[in-house]
Amino acid sequence: MSIRTPQHHVSTSAALLDELRSLTPLVQSITNVVVTNFTANVLLAIGAAPAMVDIPTEAGPFARVASGVLVNLGTPHAEPREAMVEAATAAGQAGTPWVLDPVAIGSLPVRTALARELLNLRPDIVRGNASEVIALAGLGGGGRGVDATDDPESALEAATRIARDYGSIVAVSGATDVITDGDSVVRVSNGHLWLTAVTGGGCALGAVMAGFASLDDDRLATTVAATAVYTVAAELAASDANGPGSFVPAFLDSLHLVDATTLRARAVIA
Amino acid sequence: MSIRTPQHHVSTSAALLDELRSLTPLVQSITNVVVTNFTANVLLAIGAAPAMVDIPTEAGPFARVASGVLVNLGTPHAEPREAMVEAATAAGQAGTPWVLDPVAIGSLPVRTALARELLNLRPDIVRGNASEVIALAGLGGGGRGVDATDDPESALEAATRIARDYGSIVAVSGATDVITDGDSVVRVSNGHLWLTAVTGGGCALGAVMAGFASLDDDRLATTVAATAVYTVAAELAASDANGPGSFVPAFLDSLHLVDATTLRARAVIA
Amino acid sequence: MSIRTPQHHVSTSAALLDELRSLTPLVQSITNVVVTNFTANVLLAIGAAPAMVDIPTEAGPFARVASGVLVNLGTPHAEPREAMVEAATAAGQAGTPWVLDPVAIGSLPVRTALARELLNLRPDIVRGNASEVIALAGLGGGGRGVDATDDPESALEAATRIARDYGSIVAVSGATDVITDGDSVVRVSNGHLWLTAVTGGGCALGAVMAGFASLDDDRLATTVAATAVYTVAAELAASDANGPGSFVPAFLDSLHLVDATTLRARAVIA
């Protein structure tokens, strides 16, 4: 169980941000075709290096040398599905931290079965909205598509169960993000609604979590740090944007510009 | 036959815009890999919810619960091809309105054959440029790739024939968009050249048409409304942009900000 | 061997830019799923017409009528792999210039074998970073993913060997781009670091090279022109941007706005 206070999390997050930029972790993203470009640009902006190696026979070997891996089920075509299992297996063997984002699971059969198969490979981090986390835990029927129909707090039981059964950190996105290792629960209350008005707002956060996870074995701390940096940057961007369109470039600029001092001043972690 | 006057179309379009935002229709987009991100962001900006469920066994069941479906043939890989037929069939059975965008058909064999197969499933709306609509009606040889080599008026006979034979609304894009149900012809003269200077300008409009189609059974009215909102937003955006690059975020902002009053003041419908 | 002086290259580049805009070459891009949208928008902004025809049975016939073809190995799924070989073969037969971008080859097995197969089809232009060009020549082990771990000058021997053995122009990207036909070596020193802080900066240049290659049989001159226009536009954009996010729309605007006069004033070619 983590014994960090909220203030510890803020200062750790700031230190991890500096470390990320000095180490430029290589993040393999096997993600959906809607958000590939945005995800790669988010990683570059924050200071990581993206690589989308998503075909069988390449995905596994690459996962062994990558700093972190994201497996996102948004558009699970046959080749990437095979690559996901290969990458997750190899990551587990090699000690590469990997993130599972079970996009829109619940009633859709292919991704729901795949998510269970991947969960059994014990992801280091599970990231999703409340509906998805509840569905992954087998406690509900899932939402309609990618909508977050439930409050993150409603998924706390599901998140805790997954964390304890599979040894994963579970991060549930919402107005306040809820992150747990099965014992401690950390809440990050930064962010902006416009992050939900552009596609990939949640998906790209999963890639950022994979990058931060490579920096320290305290996965609760790195997941909190990724969330805090990402959502504080969203707040900074919103003040420069006129709508969801101008929010995207402003957000990438903010991810590039946000520093430890700003993070310390603005992060709201409880 | 619609008996709406142009002024009726303007006021109906304004009312439908408000309705779209209150209902947030869920639009399933099986579209090409070039425009997935832009299409999703267009739908979010205008007030709809995007979902790209594009694999066999998931696409059909999802089309039954979606508000509307877009089937766009821009990059017709094998899995999405199967998903398109599955989704169109399920949409037809469930009464979910669906849009066919026969991108670049004519001489390219796979998509041309697929477009005919899908046309026989009687799409609620067909959207394309003049070349594509002429090719779909079997009246010409198609253009070079995605270029609009013909004036929309030149496709009016083809559009009318498709509308009458398959019960579809047919919308032909150009400087003035021509939309017909086989009897009435409505022309929308808003828009901006920069909409043709970014990829996906036409493709994303198809997704917006699918969203509006879920709001009312008068498919001519909803297709006109989608076109008017989309092209008026383009005009608003062009005045804030320095070129095609800055046009994209400005356009997404405008889609988010355009309201019924602005639409009533600016829509040019004949 | 080219006998152009650097000043000849500058004036030729300016003339080719005007010619590109008057001819609007049709560029078929079989590229990776991360950069499709950006690549298409770059082509449109600069004045070319993009088409992504990337499936077997369509890719070959289309390559015969396209002005130029890009084959980029970033995410080599099975269908595009087959389409790449088909398109490269057809392009070679039809005299359509084509560009090979061997993204991240070296240790990744599928793309490395595919790159060698495609190289044997004698691409008109090979574009890559130093690691990739060295790996393609069989002289090194490749980098980690898409990173440019070597200076372009370190790949000059590899570039020269490929150029002589396969009759290709070889362009190596870096702070100074090095371009050779196996005899002459031209260096273009424009550009901006932010071009490496967004995904697809190199990939889209390959598509631009394919467009310029359609304008003249002097492929060294057209490749230098594509590089100069592209990197000068990046410089112009950087002065209008706050970070990598706002750089993207500014870059597309600059590609649209850059003219022969600006190019003559700013291009640094040696």
Automatic annotation (TrEMBL), chains A, B, C:
Catalyzed reactions per annotation: 5-(2-hydroxyethyl)-4-methylthiazole + ATP = 4-methyl-5-(2-phosphooxyethyl)-thiazole + ADP + H(+)
EC main group: transferase
Residues bound to substrate: 52, 200
Gene Ontology molecular-function annotations: hydroxyethylthiazole kinase activity
Assigned EC number: 2.7.1.50
Cell division in keyword set: no
Pathway as given in its UniProt record: Cofactor biosynthesis; thiamine diphosphate biosynthesis; 4-methyl-5-(2-phosphoethyl)-thiazole from 5-(2-hydroxyethyl)-4-methylthiazole: step 1/1
Residues annotated for ATP binding in this entry: 127, 173
Record's signal peptide: none
InterPro entries (UniProt xref): Hyethyz_kinase, Ribokinase-like
Keywords from the UniProt entry: ATP-binding, Kinase, Magnesium, Metal-binding, Nucleotide-binding, Thiamine biosynthesis, Transferase
Cofactor names: Mg(2+)
Function statement: Catalyzes the phosphorylation of the hydroxyl group of 4-methyl-5-beta-hydroxyethylthiazole (THZ).
Family: Belongs to the Thz kinase family.
NCBIfam families for this protein: PRK09355.1 (NF006830)
Protein name as catalogued: Hydroxyethylthiazole kinase
